[in-house]
Design brief:
The complex is a heterodimer. Chain A is of the alpha/beta class. Chain A contains five helices and five strands. Chain B is rod-shaped and about 140 Å long. Classes of the chains: A alpha/beta, B alpha+beta.
């Protein structure tokens, strides 16, 4: 695939999106931000990410609704989803929406890199 | 009236079976006793008159007495008596003995079932059995009093010879032995009945001894038990009746005299009284039983409810802790994230661009403030719930306080426009820091629940001279209908299931602060969307 790998960050917390974007961009990834599930879905009409980092509890459209709608209304292939949540039952959430992995907040940024690299490979 | 161990330990002997006699019942019994005494004494002058034989009276009165004794024994030996089984078993055995002896007496009495009495009874058989019957009962009751008084605790275990079926077999055996003796040795027994009356021995020793024995036992029962229970009232009544039965028989001087008949009638009436008392006892026993069953059910229901409440409280606490942990992790995520970006930039370039550094530091500042706010909320909750909040009241201008808070909060958001509408200074006596906390909370909510941004209008006014009113109006997503009723209660995050919405403590703490000022806080949700929170405070806090 040509060009850098694309990672979509879906989180309602501005700061989280900001530093994740900065950190991943630094590593050569292309980052698409969305502040809730609905925004993410509308963006997915025009871009195809290689990985989605998904917060679960968000206003307007939460992670569960997003995952369900994404799988039904968008033609494949679907990007793998990593659940990123502060909730204690991150693994349960991940299982509920059949996500490929989960990352518990607060996470070390190196763990974020490992996780992204594991699912999409290095940036280029 | 559930008996507790302490009650048992101090229980008077009169509380056997737990069925106490009422003062009215004791008065009634005393009245009946006095009537009995009066009737007996009234009959004395004519007691030696010989009446034509009425062969029915003796069998009827004896049979009735026998049945009354059996019934009494039945209650004394029933499971109801489990509480003080030992002494009561002795008393029950005495009553069984009495009813068995009555049968033996009646069977051997001349001219009842046969001219001489059954089983080849002689002229002295029935009268000796009668004495054995009466003295035996007196002895049994005396023994009961002794056991009950001497060992009310250790006596709770039945005497060994009265356990199980022995309580029936022992009295039966005694009566059979006595019957055997009275039949076999009738020729050798001293003469108590002579043609035309009682023998000298009978008149001089046996009858007075019986009178004395019953008088003493009656006095002992009354003294020891004070007839506080229906049981002892019944025992005393039957003793009294026997006493006068013996007395009338004594003054009658022979069988079939007026005195003798009166003695039989007396026994019959006494049995009727005892049976009546037994009925009252049974009624009370069942009433107690039903009441304790209902009490048990009530306690069970109360216990179940308390358990459910405790379980709910535990679940609430657990979910609160889960939410609290979730909420604290969010600022921590950002603190770690921005610390990382600063560090990597430093490592890579040896320096950080000032605008990036400023941004990261602002984020760190903001997020640590958020964490601090969460921790403070949790602390406030503890203070409010456990120690009670203390206000530090002072004169302040509510308008400028609102202006300051709003400008501070405006710095946190770029997509919301905060605006204050006020009509000049409004001085009031408030706890400025706490009021600020309430306002920050309302504004935080307004911002958080207006994710698309928009205007937030804070209005300060004084609708009446003695009140100040602060309202916060946003155009956000409002609060779902089913959550509105519990908005200001603890642990009721309005959007918990939808997305991150804080600890659900903000409005609860705000309400408590406002209420401590003597004010009110309310929310309404205008049709055109968003929320409107209104705080009304007295200008001089009433707490």
């Amino acid at each position: 695939m040509a060009g850098p790998k694309r990672v979509m960050v879906v989180d309602d917390d501005d700061f989280v999106r900001f530093f994740v974007e900065e950190a991943l961009t630094d590593r050569g990834y292309e980052v698409i931000e969305a502040r809730n599930g609905a925004v993410a879905l509308s963006l997915l009409g025009s871009v195809q990410p290689d990985l989605i980092l998904l917060d679960m509890r968000m206003p307007v459209m939460d992670g569960w609704q997003f995952a369900a709608t994404y799988r039904v209304s968008h033609p494949g292939p679907h990007a793998p989803i990593v659940v990123v949540t502060a909730a204690a039952d991150a693994a349960t959430y991940a299982a509920q929406i059949q996500a490929q992995a989960h990352l518990s907040k607060p996470f070390a940024v190196d763990d974020l890199f490992d996780c992204v690299a594991h699912h999409v490979g290095s940036a280029q | 009236m559930a008996p507790s161990p302490t009650q048992n330990a101090t229980a008077l002997p009169g509380e056997d079976l737990g069925i106490l006699s009422s003062p009215a019942q004791r008065r009634l019994a005393l009245g009946a006793a006095l009537a009995l005494v009066a009737a007996s004494l009234f009959m004395v002058p004519w007691s030696e008159n010989v009446l034509p034989p009425m062969m029915g009276l003796l069998p009827v009165s004896t049979t009735f007495g026998c049945m009354a004794d059996l019934l009494t024994a039945g209650i004394l030996l029933s499971p109801f008596a489990g509480n003080r089984r030992g002494p009561l078993a002795l008393l029950g055995a005495t009553y069984l003995y009495s009813s068995f002896a009555a049968v033996a007496f009646l069977l051997t009495f001349p001219n009842v079932f046969s001219t001489q009495g059954l089983f080849g009874a002689g002229s002295q058989t029935a009268t000796w059995l009668y004495q054995a019957w009466r003295f035996g009962v007196a002895l049994g009751i005396l023994a009961y009093l002794v056991v009950d008084a001497v060992a009310p605790e250790s006596g709770r275990e039945s005497l060994r010879c009265l356990r199980g079926q022995r309580v029936v077999l022992v009295p039966l055996l005694i009566v059979l032995v006595l019957l055997f003796l009275a039949l076999c040795f009738q020729g050798n027994l001293p003469t108590l009945i002579v043609p035309g009356g009682y023998s000298t021995l009978n008149k001089a020793i046996i009858l007075p001894a019986g009178l004395l024995a019953y008088a003493l036992v009656l006095a002992a029962v009354v003294r020891q038990t004070r007839c506080r229970s229906l049981l002892h009232l019944g025992v005393a009544m039957s003793l009294l009746a026997t006493e006068f039965s013996l007395f009338l028989g004594d003054v009658g001087r022979a069988r079939y005299t007026l005195g003798w008949y009166a003695a039989r009638a007396d026994a019959l009436i006494a049995s009727l009284v005892v049976v009546t008392i037994l009925f009252v006892m049974i009624r009370k026993l069942y009433a107690t039983l039903i009441a304790s069953e209902q009490q048990f059910k009530r306690l069970e229901a109360a216990e179940r409810e308390a358990r459910l409440r405790a379980e709910q409280a535990l679940r609430d606490r657990e979910s609160f802790l889960a939410v609290a942990a979730h909420e604290l992790k969010t600022p921590l995520t950002n603190l770690r994230g921005f610390a990382y970006t600063l560090r990597t930039a430093m490592d890579r370039d040896g320096a950080v661009q000032s605008d990036r550094a400023r941004l990261a530091l602002r984020a760190i500042d903001d997020q640590s403030e958020k964490a601090d706010r969460l921790i403070r909320q949790m602390f406030d909750l503890t203070v409010i719930e456990e120690r009670g909040l203390k206000l530090e009241l002072a004169q302040a201008d509510v308008s400028s306080l609102v202006n300051e808070v709003v400008s501070a909060v405006q710095l946190r958001t770029a997509i919301h426009t905060l605006r204050v509408v006020t009509s000049g200074a409004i001085p009031a006596v408030v706890d400025a820091l706490r009021l600020e906390q309430v306002l920050v909370n309302l504004l935080d909510n307004a911002i958080r629940f207006s994710p698309e941004g928009g205007p937030i209008v804070v209005e300060v006014g004084s609708p009446a001279l003695d009140t100040v009113c602060i309202s916060v109006r946003d155009r956000g997503i409002g609060v779902p209908g089913e959550k509105r009723a519990h908005l200001f209660e603890r642990l009721a995050p309005a959007h918990a299931s939808e997305y991150r919405s804080g600890l659900g403590l903000g409005l609860y703490i705000s309400r408590r602060i406002v209420e401590m000022h003597g004010g009110t806080i309310a929310a309404c949700f205008p049709a055109e969307g968003g929320s409107l929170f209104i705080v009304t405070l007295p200008r001089v806090a009433s707490s």
